[in-house]
Give the backbone structure.
Amino acid sequence: MVHNEVGRILFLKKRYADALTEFNETLSIDPEDLQAHYNLMLCYSGLGDEARANEHKERYLRFKADESAQAITGPYRQTHPEDNNERQAIHEHVSVALAPAQPKKPVAAHASAQNVNRERTRPGGSE
């Protein structure tokens, strides 16, 4: 996300308060953004606010990918890259063509056919 990148530049310039705004903007879009929580932890530490730094450290650790899960799922993901799209920061969803809808019988034609059939079976009808 652009906000993360801008925030990172501001952080490197030691403009921690300005960087906070960018990282918080990222969290307004994606509250579980791993990078934003990590960078907020660093910014609050730079500002000397250890309580808030620890809040974001806890969130960072909670949302961080489980290392053992990576080891378990890694071989599968390597042999099935199409199933790995959602883990990529930027990825494309491929659209598939939809099957054409089945044509429906017009209601008026169906009703007319029923009336003709009724007319034929009535005494004095056309048969």
